[in-house]
Amino acid sequence: MRGYFSNRLVRIGLGVLMVGSAPLLGIIFLADVGVWPDPNPNPIDPGLLFFFSFWLGVITLALVFGGSMVRRHSTGNH
């Protein structure tokens, strides 16, 4: 598993997932605690950021995982 996280594309994909979801999750948390000025926010911009960054990160991780599976099967290491 350590080798998987040493891959640069995996780190980029996970970073995109974390950076893209942080604003939306932060607004949800702050509104739930009562710190956010609006108790029932409608965060369109952070929601769109989350939507696009989530799929970009998932596709990046899927490509890396799929590439490692193809490489594993082509070398015969099951």
How many helix segments?
A: 3
Quick one: overall form? elongated
Largest sheet: none
Strand content: under 5%
Work out the number of β strands: 0
**If you compute it from the alpha carbons, what radius of gyration comes out, rounded to the nearest whole angstrom?**
17 Å
Structural class: mainly alpha
Query: Oligomer, anyone?
Result: single chain
Question: How confident is the prediction overall: mean pLDDT?
Answer: 85
Roughly how many Å apart are the termini? 15 Å
Order of helices and strands: HHH
Show unreliable segments: none
- Proportion in helices: over 70%
How would you describe this structure to a colleague?
The protein has 78 residues and is an all-alpha fold. The protein has one domain (2-75). Helix content is 79%, strand content 0%. It contains 3 helices and no strands. 8% of the residues are buried. The mean pLDDT is 85.
Write the layout of secondary structure elements.
Blueprint: H1 2-5, H2 8-33, H3 44-75
